[in-house]
Amino acid sequence: MTPSVLILSATLAALVAAAPSKPNIVLIYADDLGYGDLSCNGATALQTPHSDRLAKEGLNFSSGYSAATTCTPSRYSMLTGEYAFRQKGTGILPGDANLIIEPGRATLASALKGAGYKTGVVGKWHLGLGAGVIDWNGEIKPGPNEVGFDESFIMAATGDRVPCVFLRNHGIENLDPADPIQVSYKNPFPGEADGVRDRGSLKMDWSHGHNQAVINGVGRIGYMTGGSKARWTDETMAETFAKEAVSFIERSKDQAFFLYFATHGVHVPRIVNPRFAGKTPMGPRGDAIAEFDWQVGQVLDAIDRLGLADETLVILTSDNGPVLDDGYKDQAVEKLGSHKPAGPFRGGKSSIHEGGSRVPLLARWPGRVKPGGTSGAIISQVDFPATFATLAGASFPKDRAPDTRNVLPALLGESPTGREHVLQYSGIVAVRAGDWKLIPTKAAKGAKKAKLEFQLYNLAKDPGETTDVVAENPEKAAALRKLLASGTDSPPTGG
Ligand code: NG6
Ligand code: CA
Q: How many angstroms separate the Cα of 222 from the Cα of each of 185, 205, 350, 376, 445?
């Protein structure tokens, strides 16, 4: 080779090495984990060393939002890029609901798949399965595999809802055809244990709901019979999901991959592995946080072991804010002590206040994101489709995804600002713009008409939303009302 060719090829090699390649993306999606539940966000009653490691080696966001305040609408928005308030049927689903994302519609997963990623989901699905009456003993589709995931290992809905089994791709795992499963949200099956009648023998008592089928000694929502070999045990669920997540990473390591790891922790019923029982002073809810953090550690260990850390973006976030008593008597209230599950924020799961949707958001990518930083950039999970697609060198189709924005520069810490304003959804829609937040409320009872009124908070001065300052700031309130109106007036995108 002549010297000039040598120089040229060396320059090319350097360019190739410096070019940002497509990172793997591991999205760890906790259930009902509050902003303040991690020690990197101020918790002191328990420690979350593995999540904290993500914060230490990556970027910790103080204004990360789920797109809704319960599971189904948050997940719907995160996968489709459309706020759930634009679409009917996106509320909390029963375990026998049909898939609410039409096959063929662009999703976070299908966009990454289209960009060459191998895609997998492990954990809680809760977006429905099948079309029409589901035959739980046959091929169950459409489901995750029809909306962009190459592989899936999921629970259909939630840990507190039937069917209490795992599904691998289109079928129930470990199902014995001689012992078929039946599921009903209407009628009990004769001869099966019942959460009301057999209440005295339950492993964990219920406080409201959760008194229908009894599976693994725990009352659930809905009824089921059969499938005894396929039923999960709550105590090993976190381990099972962690193993499946690690296995997906191991099997996918030779190509770009996207893993959506949606843990059951820390949703009810909070029944952890005996290794975690009593490990925190906060009872089952605290122990479930510790067990969730262990799952994070399992994933990070696998990434390290396979030498993938530098080329993997790991995101940790939650589908909605925290809840204490969510239907089981698990001492979440009694043993809370001084712990603040939502950190400095007001409310929690199902609340339009910040605690409902301001969730932990951590991003680590050693090859690209500077370690140890914090960011106040506003990012919503509804932005993940456009943002991750951009990261993968693709673009997210806009036609059915009116709400997703590319906030990649903010996510990678290259820009201090993300969205200028974000909509928050919990039955009603609120808006935060900069430091200000506007919540529509109905006029107090006794007023002549149920006229819409508004509350206004200054989140910089008053993150806990203690003082409504709407009367003192009419111009600010008017500006936010306009933003809210323009953000919510789009018609549903339809099918
Ligand atoms: C509620 C359940 C609650 C939980 C929630 C969904 C009762 C009384 N309450 O209806 O326990 O399952 O739905 O949570 O049944 S989510 O995080 O999946 O949205
Ligand atoms: Ca949830």
A: 5, 16, 22, 42, 36
pLDDT per residue over 84-113, tens digit each? 999 999 999 999 999 999 999 999 999 999
225, part of any domain: no
> Do 440 and 309 share a structural domain?
no
Which atom of ligand 1 has the smallest separation from the CA of 124?
18
Q: Is 40 known to be catalytic? A: no
- Residues 258, 285 within the same domain: yes
For ligand 1, pick from 72, 154, 158 the residue to mutate: most ligand atoms within 8 Å of CB. Answer: 158
Domain boundary residue, one of 373, 395, 417: 417
Range of the domain at 24: 20-172+233-417
Q: Which helix (H) or strand (E) holds 480?
A: helix 474-488
481 within a domain of the structure (yes/no)? yes
SS3 84: helix
- Same structural domain for residues 320 and 409? yes
Distance of CA 330 from the midpoint of ligand 1 (Å): 15
Whether the Cβ atoms of residue 36 and residue 343 lie closer than 8 Å to each other: yes
Residues 412 and 445 in one domain: no
How many Cβ atoms sit within 10 Å of the Cβ of residue 338? 6
Give tens-digit pLDDT for 165-206.
999 999 999 999 999 999 999 999 999 999 999 999 999 999
* CB of 71 shorter than 6 A to ligand 1: yes
